[in-house]
Amino acid sequence: MTNKIFSNKRIGILGKGWSGKSTITVLLAKALRNCGYQVCVLDADSTNMGIHQALGFKKPPLSLMDYFGGTIFSGGKVSCPVDDPTPLSGATIHLTKIPNKYYSFDQEGLFLFQLGKIGDKGPGAGCDGPISKITRDLRVEGIGDQPVTLIDVKAGLEDFTMGVITSMDWIITVVDPTTASIQIAEDINNLIPRIKAGELPATEHLESSELIEEAKRIYKEARIKESFVLLNKIKDEKIENYVYKKLKEKRLRAIGVIYEDSSISLSWLEGKPLEAIKANKDIMGAIKRLEQIVKEQQGNL
Q: More exposed terminus of the chain, fewer Cβ within 10 Å: N or C?
């Protein structure tokens, strides 16, 4: 890919629990790196573990939640974007100014940031909304020539409704062969046009006019363009055809399919780098399809 169409773009990976979001994030990261991109992966899933191993890193970096001083629920400064939509102070960071213990990287242009986990915080530690604020506002500089950023968020729609998608360019919703997975993809797809049309977030709970205006501004300036669907864990042609039929009925645009592969599950179980030859080929097909769609849309501007 000589024309790096995804440079300086942010792609969110969403989906229901166990649909395989982190697997798709890892496959995309490695494939885009092999295409010559510098890739920045944001591990924004507050509960899932092990993405650093799947990417080939021996240990995870320290969390950026710690770097930013902790959550407001624990006496820190990072607040929930629903209660406090104001931008996170210092959210634009440069690699030369942040200790390297807060990120992992390899020599081929792949960077990993862990935004925060809540599993060890104890009872009453509060929600993980502050992680959503870091996800929404974080910008990393110093990774060379405009990297593509992949954001692996928590399963479900909570992050989606917290405004995280306002800072994403595209969304890839991972759909496994379940009705719930297809429904989440439809919900995401239906909400994006409403944001682009100017629909604003709920603000009745905000007590000051300044916070209300800030919440509205974030949605008015949303950069989100479109969502796509990537099928995952597809066992056979019959299931594939059925899922495609349902997606077509709901006017959801699929960019590819990743077939069920026991070696992927084994890699996660053993904590080893994710290596799946067939899936790597399939993900390259999805990237090329997405690139084709984006080029066609840009040509129509």
A: C
